[in-house]
Amino acid sequence: MDKTTHSFQAEVKQLLHLVTHSLYSNKEIFLRELISNASDACDKLRFEALDNSALYEDAPNLEVRVLVDKAARTLTIRDNGIGMSAQEAIDHLGTIAKSGTKEFMGRLSGDQQKDAQLIGQFGVGFYSGYIVADRITVESRRAGLKAEEGVRWSSEGTGDFEVEAITKPTRGTDIILHLREGEDEFLTAWKLRGIINKYSDHISLPILMQKEEWDAEKSEYVTQDAWDTVNQAAALWTRSKSDITEEQYHDFYKQISHDSEPPLAYTHNRVEGRSEYTQLLFVPKNAPYDLWNRDRKGGLKLYVKRVFIMDDAEALLPSYLRFVKGVIDSADLPLNVSREILQESRDVKAIREGCTKRVLSMLEELANNEDQAKRDQYAAFWKEFGAVLKEGVGEDFTNKERLAKLLRFASTHADENVSLADYVGRMKEGQDAIYVITADSLAAAKNSPQLELFKKKGIEVLLLTDRVDEWVLSHLYDFDGRPMQNVTKGAIDLGKLQDEEEKKKAEEAAESLKPLLERLKTALGERAKDVRVTTRLVDSPACLVTEEGDMSAHLARLLKQAGQ
Ligand code: ADP
Ligand code: MG
């Protein structure tokens, strides 16, 4: 293949510009990104080689090497993973296949710290090399192809890239960074070792660097022929809990999630019984930008006996726990397991149930903690992920009760964080229902005329303003034996809370107002099912209610907005 020139996809150009200009203060993350790509490439090879061990050629030990050439001012990240064919290099390094890139650009805040975090979440990793390099050359050969079928991809990271065929005897990929002027610190071995230790310690492959020795004559460090391993290279979850520090858990979390903050909570267990597996699960502090994207990747990685099988193994957790990150390492699943098999597998079912219970326990531990600080953490969690967790009330029948206890609402008594148990604890003598109102916003809920009577009587009403709340209500009929009653629906019977005097007055009024009601009914015709005298209003002359069992007005509005 002759040398050919290609143009980057428009989005890539934009992205490259942003990456190089906005991430400068966090530049060392490029090494984490490139090592993580190298590690992914080795995982992919290991997986493909399950069916075809010839792919290992004569190099079965997967590894990453970081090489420095001071004279040429290059830094190379070399792996012997799956490699790329010429077409793959063109496709994978010249375009962004993932949807959401536009969204990413829109989300860049200008705050470099935050933006660097986003970069990781989006997996625009490769381009981060251009923060420190003014040219990147990639030399690669896909496992299984002939030595002559290697590819050299090269670009200054502006408009175009060049591709040509090369002969590359060794399988895998070299990412060669031609460092920008002034970036010589990335030629220093101890600096690089420090970054690797910080960001890539838990990569389960060895990351090797050449040793250096002080040369007194030249009065500088000289690179030796010997290599040593810089990282720990043992998959964290396979180690015993007692040997792992909190900091190591946090670092591991940051590495798999690309989050810059430590997790809110984590749990690490070897599970035996119906299915044998290790679980290491994290609840993040902050919601990712794409929590509501339908085609967003899930956060669990599946391994089978330490062999990486897949990212985004959505069968392992219900979707309402999609914010959880972590690793499952199964001892029972077959190594050639596919997504289809996962959906059917009884082992997976057991893992899914086990993980769900664990995550709920972690959350309960925070929510019910005696320590106020922990309960505050739960409140913070709820702010970020509550709307997602709520979906579980309708989706997970087995854990509905547990989920109901974890719900938090605003109410007429407190602006946030009211649990159903708090509500029940504050119920008035003689009150037997849990009253809720659904509305578009907190202000609309609070000012609704439907609440007048409740306010007058000091009865607490939960204010439900999330889009999913209507749906949640349709699955949560009661709590602790008390029915949930939407105050915008049907006739409100306050039962023993109603005073007899008022009731009688209303009945009399209904009697004397009959002719008026009849006239209103005729005037409104089809548009109203009924016109009634009510005790629920205090100051307002009239309000709309829907029939018990009908869609609430709020839901009707939502559906109308959605074009239904
Ligand atoms: P991501 O890792 O999230 O896919 P990157 O921008 O980091 O995004 O990498 C883009 C793509 O380039 C990868 O998905 C992969 O197909 C390819 N790639 C990058 N580095 C390597 C490598 N060392 N070996 C093989 N393929 C690679
Ligand atoms: Mg990557």
From TrEMBL:
InterPro entries assigned: HATPase_C_sf, HATPase_dom, Heat_shock_protein_90_CS, HSP90_C, Hsp90_fam, Hsp90_N, Ribosomal_Su5_D2-typ_SF
Q: What Gene Ontology cellular component terms go with this record?
A: cytoplasm
Keywords assigned by UniProt?
A: ATP-binding, Chaperone, Cytoplasm, Nucleotide-binding, Stress response
A: annotated span = 1-339
PROSITE patterns found in the cross-reference section? HSP90 (PS00298)
- The superkingdom listed in its UniProt entry is Bacteria
**Subunit structure, as described in the record:** Homodimer.
Role description? Molecular chaperone. Has ATPase activity.
Q: Which family does it belong to?
A: Belongs to the heat shock protein 90 family.
Protein name (database record): Chaperone protein HtpG
Phylogenetic placement of the source organism? Bacteria, Pseudomonadati, Pseudomonadota, Betaproteobacteria, Burkholderiales
Q: Which gene encodes it?
A: htpG
